[in-house]
């Protein structure tokens, strides 16, 4: 729940499967994704999902990595000493002090998406806190081609946080409310986070409803991202990861623009598109642990 | 793996594409020495193949860093050949602009 004046504040999420006897597993592996806006940790027991935690990234990447790991491990009574292998990923991956290896978030999102949405996934859109990536992969989740844009915050989670605050709308309501309109407005002309802020204020002054401004901003963000997807040529199946993957106001408009529907996770699933990177890292950690055990 | 390094901004689309499969088969990696602005390096990718990459510091400055070489190729220059793409005998390098 957003506190007064903190409409950007999204809920931290956690989940653990307390029915799994991780002490009986041959290995617990961890993936830690330190992004520019959020950090996640995922724990696996013999390759099976054990727990995850998603939190906001603070000013120190090592502290954020540790907080994410503790959030996933502590409810199960699991500490760093219980982890056989850890892979760090994301923008702050080199600052995960307890990781044995770092792997780019590009490879980790592809592997995580393959696990979450299945081997038919060929195109992944990762809409992160401060960048946006389009990834093409094979049936094993191995990256074949990728493109990213992290030059500005337009079309990213950070941009959406700014709009949430400007319009005083809790960030988790933006997607739904952006459809509470009579007709689809033209996209705002500036997706640039700084200029979009002043444009949104000007539209409100001109008599637009908050919902109409939200629709115009979501449409502009979708339009910008769709351009990047089209450069890579979308191949089915298509899946969206990252925090913005939970904003239907953006994802549905992207689907309309590219003419391809994204795979939806089943209702009631514990999986969250925001943990795809950390999940992929944990899966890499599982493979690397097994490889090192075989080699030693 | 085909990697597209670079960015899009209000002025254009600036990406260097490296075909990792073609690049991994090349022993010379002459692109690294050919670039006067040290845009390239050789690193193991996520799947442990040794390939050329665009270094982190250069990824958001390609338009500026490559301007010197591209400028030489204007108006009767070297017919749009760049030191990096000329040095890449594997044909693994491509500029988008």
Low-confidence parts of chain B: none
Shape of chain A: globular
Strand content of chain B: 25-35%
**Percent range of helical residues of chain A:** 25-40%
- Provide the CATH topology of chain B: Alpha-Beta Plaits
Count of β-strands of chain A: 10
CATH architecture designation of chain B? 2-Layer Sandwich
CATH topology of the largest domain in chain A: Nucleotidyltransferase, domain 5
Element string of chain A (H = helix, E = strand): EEEEHEEHEEEHHHHEHH
The total count of strands of chain B amounts to 5
Estimated helix fraction of chain B: 25-40%
Shape of chain B: globular
Specify the CATH homologous superfamily of the largest domain in chain A: ATPase, nucleotide binding domain
The first-level CATH class of the largest domain in chain A is given as Alpha Beta
**Secondary-structure element order of chain B, N to C:** EEHHEEHHHE
Derived structural class of chain B? alpha+beta
Question: What is the CATH-assigned architecture of the largest domain in chain A?
Answer: 2-Layer Sandwich
């Amino acid at each position: 729940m957003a506190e007064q004046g903190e409409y950007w504040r999204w809920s931290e999420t956690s989940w653990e499967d307390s029915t799994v006897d991780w002490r009986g597993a041959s290995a617990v592996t961890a993936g830690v994704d330190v992004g520019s806006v959020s950090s996640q940790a995922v724990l696996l027991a013999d390759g099976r999902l054990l727990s995850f935690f998603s939190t906001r990234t603070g000013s120190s990447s090592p502290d954020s990595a540790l907080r994410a790991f503790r959030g996933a491990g502590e409810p199960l009574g699991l500490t760093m000493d219980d982890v056989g292998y850890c892979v760090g990923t994301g923008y702050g991956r080199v600052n995960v002090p307890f990781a044995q290896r770092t792997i780019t978030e590009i490879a980790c999102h592809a592997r995580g998406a393959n696990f979450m949405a299945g081997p038919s996934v060929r195109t992944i859109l990762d809409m992160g806190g401060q960048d946006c990536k389009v990834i093409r992969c094979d049936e094993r989740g191995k990256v074949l081609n990728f493109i990213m844009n992290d030059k500005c915050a337009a079309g990213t989670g950070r941009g959406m946080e700014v709009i949430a605050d400007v319009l005083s709308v809790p960030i988790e309501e933006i997607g739904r409310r952006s459809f509470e309109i009579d007709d689809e407005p033209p996209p705002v002309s500036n997706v640039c986070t700084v200029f979009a802020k002043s444009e949104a204020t000007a539209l409100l002054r001109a008599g637009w409803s908050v919902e109409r401004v939200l629709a115009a901003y979501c449409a502009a963000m979708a339009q910008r991202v769709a351009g990047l997807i089209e450069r890579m040529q979308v191949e089915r199946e298509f899946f969206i990861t990252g925090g913005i993957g939970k904003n239907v106001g953006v994802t549905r408009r992207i689907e309309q623009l590219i003419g391809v529907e994204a795979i939806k996770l089943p209702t009631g699933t514990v999986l969250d598109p925001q943990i795809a990177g950390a999940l992929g890292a944990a899966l890499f950690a599982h493979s690397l642990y097994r490889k090192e055990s075989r080699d030693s | 793996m085909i990697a597209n390094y670079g960015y899009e901004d209000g002025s254009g689309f600036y990406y260097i594409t490296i075909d990792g499969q073609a690049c991994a088969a090349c022993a010379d990696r002459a692109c690294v020495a050919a670039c006067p602005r040290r845009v390239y390096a050789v690193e193991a990718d996520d799947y442990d193949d040794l390939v050329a990459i665009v270094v982190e510091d250069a990824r958001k400055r390609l338009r500026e860093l490559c301007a010197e070489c591209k400028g030489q190729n204007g108006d009767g220059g070297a017919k749009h050949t760049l030191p990096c793409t000329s040095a890449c005998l594997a044909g693994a390098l491509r500029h988008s602009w």
